[in-house]
């Protein structure tokens, strides 16, 4: 596997992250720093290994140490997960998380208020 092929794999995963999760960044490594909470651990680790292989592929001595089979498996893991995500759902997912956080906070606040009123004897 050549350095160009490894770099193309990293660029493809970076493009999928940008398209599916709306995350901007210069390269795959920069985009991964912003998507830590959006990707499952297995996919994130595979993408981090792929980014490291892409960076190492620029150096001929490090290119010889890259495990081509592992790079292909990591690429496959990332592409399978990211292609299953509908484009544009990153913003919607974030909006739902914020709404759930606010709703949960209001529920806890209401329960605390009821407990306090019951403790005061006002219920």
Give an overview in words.
The chain has 123 residues and is mostly helical. It folds into two domains: 3-87, no CATH class; 89-123. It contains six helices and no strands. It has helices at residues 3-21, 28-34, 41-56, 60-63, 68-84, 89-120. The longest helix is centred in the last third of the chain and has 32 residues, at 89-120. The radius of gyration is 22 Å and the shape is elongated.
Low-confidence stretches: none
β-strand percent reads: under 5%
Summing up helix and strand content along with how strands pair, one would put the structural category as mainly alpha
| SSE string, helices as H and strands as E | HHHHHH
Number of alpha- plus pi-helical segments: 6
How do you describe this structure in short?
With 123 residues, the protein is mainly alpha-helical. 77% of the residues lie in helices and 0% in strands. The protein has six helices and no strands.
Helix and strand arrangement:
Layout: H1 3-21, H2 28-34, H3 41-56, H4 60-63, H5 68-84, H6 89-120
Helix pairs in contact: 1-3, 1-5, 3-5
Entry keywords:
mainly alpha; 0% strand; 6 helices; elongated; 123 residues
């Amino acid at each position: 596997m050549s350095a160009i092929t490894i770099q193309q794999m990293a660029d493809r995963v970076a493009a999928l992250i940008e398209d599916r999760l709306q995350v901007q960044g210069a390269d795959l490594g920069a985009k991964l720093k912003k998507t830590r909470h959006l990707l499952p651990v297995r996919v994130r680790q595979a993408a981090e290994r792929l980014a490291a292989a892409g960076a190492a592929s620029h150096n001929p001595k490090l290119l010889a140490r890259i495990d081509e089979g592992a790079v292909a498996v990591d690429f496959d893991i990332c592409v399978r997960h990211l292609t299953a995500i509908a484009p544009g759902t990153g913003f919607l997912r974030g909006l739902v998380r914020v709404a759930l956080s606010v709703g949960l906070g209001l529920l806890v606040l209401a329960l605390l208020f009821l407990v306090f009123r019951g403790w005061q004897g006002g219920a």
